[in-house]
Amino acid sequence: MKRLVLLALLAFAACGGSDDPEPTEAPGTTVSGVSLQEVGSFDSPVFLTSPPDDERLFIVEQNGTIRILDGEQTIEQPFLDISDRIEAGGEQGLLGLAFPPDYADSGRFYVYYTAEDGANTVAEYRRAEDNRADPDSERILIAQEDSEPNHNGGMITFGPDGKLYIGMGDGGGGGDQHGEIGNAQALDTILGKILRIDPAADRGRPYTIPDDNPFVGREGVRGEIYAYGLRNPWRFSFDRSTGDLTIGDVGQNAVEEISFVRSDEAAGANFGWRVFEGSSRYTEGEEAEGAIEPAIDESHDDGNCSITGGYVVRDPKLASYSGRYLYGDLCRAPLRLAELPEGEPRDSGLEVQSLSSFGEDAQGRIYALSLDGPVYRLVER
Questions:
Q1: How far is the C-alpha of 371 from the C-alpha of 11, rounded, in Å?
Q2: Does the N terminus or the C terminus of the chain have fewer Cβ atoms within 10 A?
């Protein structure tokens, strides 16, 4: 049984985000002139992002709140509080946040959470004023039934094409024991997939399926599917310079996986689960057509347990990391760097305990989040 994060086993000891500490450097976190600077502390933070052309940081707390860090000040009132409608704990909770390119004008934004009935839910909300959203403005786009509490995915982001991409886990349990071939390889379910949609309603459906999605028009296949063969794509990202897609897919019991695909090869990609766990065969007697081998395998023998996908660094102020992919693992403090798709990973020299996620702001600056509370910005010394 795997866990987004052994969240239930870790003490939720994070401080509230209302205090405004001066940025400080985490001890022992310097390599190639880069260090970690603490910008705030929050209650079980699991994601960070910014609206386009906005200098504020929006921090997602697993218990159902989103807080704004404006400069060095955390605004006391949450931007959004939906803690009364979610199931939080373990791998469940408020897990993702995405702002569309037109957020400044439309005021619409999107969240991913596990509902009280366990459904993996993607919903639209509206801004009420600059620093506050209207919790009563909810419009549900997707409510995917999920009978098990783990492998919920949770990443949502707008891609370079302006479409909304959604990461769905395989439905939970161990070994993807759902149906004859598991959910991840089955194209009649959205579980175990990355989805691509336009959030605008269309002919009675709460969202639009783009005509150029790879499986549109195939009988018995969900047209929302963009890529498949995933176990629990907790975090994925698009390179802001090239559009290439990189996925951190949480493994079963032996291997954690970083998958990479060029922007022009991502549509319809099969990443191999449950036939493969990382580069190793997991299920005998089954095939995963055209399965893409991982760019990086991280073994549990080395202390890994739950991979956290990050970002290709494009912050011009981090020249020594430029073009390298930054990622980590919940159970290992060292953050890792690799030149994708073939570069050998190495420890960056930076460490974050209980790493829950990475984040990227509108300026391309990179952040690392600890489930214990601190949020760090990567800075040049």
A1: 9
A2: C
First to last CA, the chain: 41
DSSP structure class, residue 22: P
- Using omega within 30 degrees of 0 as the cis cutoff, is the peptide bond preceding 235 cis? no
CA distances to 227, 255, 311 from 244, in Å: 13, 23, 11
Domain span at residue 249 reads: 7-380
- The CATH number of the domain where 303 resides is what? 2.120.10.30
330 token code pair: 């919940």
Whether 63 maps to a domain, the answer reads: yes
pLDDT at residue number 9: 38
CA 240 to chain centre: 16
Return the ∠ at Cα 95 (arms to 45 and 197), rounded to 5°: 140
Residue 381: which pLDDT band, with cuts at 50, 70 and 90? confident
Cα torsion through 192, 49, 135, 3, rounded to 10: 40
Rounded to the nearest 5 degrees, what angle is found at the Cα of 7, between the Cα atoms of 11 and 233? 155
Residue 19 predicted with pLDDT over 90? no
Euclidean distance between CA atoms 273 and 288, whole angstroms:
8
pTM (2 decimals)? Answer: 0.92
Edge-to-edge strands, sheet with 132-144? 94-98, 108-114, 120-129, 132-144
Distance CA 170, CA 280 (A): 18
Phi, psi of 264 (to 5 degrees): -90, 5
**Total tally of structural domains belonging to the chain:** 1
